[in-house]
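Hi C.,

You asked whether I'd gotten around to modeling the 276-residue construct. I have! Everything is below, sequence then structure, no commentary in between.
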Amino acid sequence: MTMNNAAATSPTWTGMVPIDDTALAVTDTGGPGVPVLYLNGQFATQGYWRRVIAELGTGWRHITYDERARGRKSKRSTDYSFEAAVRDVDAVLAAREVDRALVVGWSYGAVVGAHWANRNPQRALGAVLVDGAFPHDWLDEAMEQRIRKMFRRMNVFMPLLRPTGLTPRMNAEQMADSNIELGRLSRERELGPVLDSITVPVRYVVASGTSLGSRGDEQETIRTSLDAVTARNPHIQIAAKVASNHGAILKKDFPAVAEAVREVARLDRGDAEAPR
């Protein structure tokens, strides 16, 4: 692992990391511990990880950031594509002078984490994917229309919440486009080969029940796609199936996420020396 001496010994650093036409708000606890990079849900913020970080404790180096136009400080961009989100992982790690990291992604962030781990086997200590990165063909024309309608309705009140950082500084069309792109990338023929090619330890923490915009047992059906993934790739396993739903998993089942992080870190080291 490569980092400068200041980063290894300094207290928590917060600041802006420039990339492309924007800048991202980043927090890095510093220290010599295993670097863990947290990848947010599609329109979520780094604050969602606070319980997981507290559960893991100070023996780890926790790096969080808000994606483009998310949170209170990250700047707007002309590019909200998935590929931009993957580039942002590299930009944040480079800015903090970290060569190897364990990535933990929730929802949209899980898909980003899966792609990054697949593309960077020498740099990924491993990945923990929290209720996301399920290879399933859930997007069709009717679902696209449902997504666009949902974000148009949400756009009525989203501007009121933007100053708080609870909603992104993106318009309804941009948010819908991002969600639809995720649906296309999540198709079995797209995401399946990515997961099959991963060669580092991956552990899933899977929620129960519904998520925003889902109906009936749609979400549980999507989650069953993991059965084929774990059968094909021995590097990927389900660490836990928890009781909380998609939106509450980081709030209610953070101990399970933290334990999966510990497991992946031990697997990378090949022993039991990872922080407890």
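If it helps when you're writing up: The two ends are 20 Å apart (CA to CA).

Thanks,
B.
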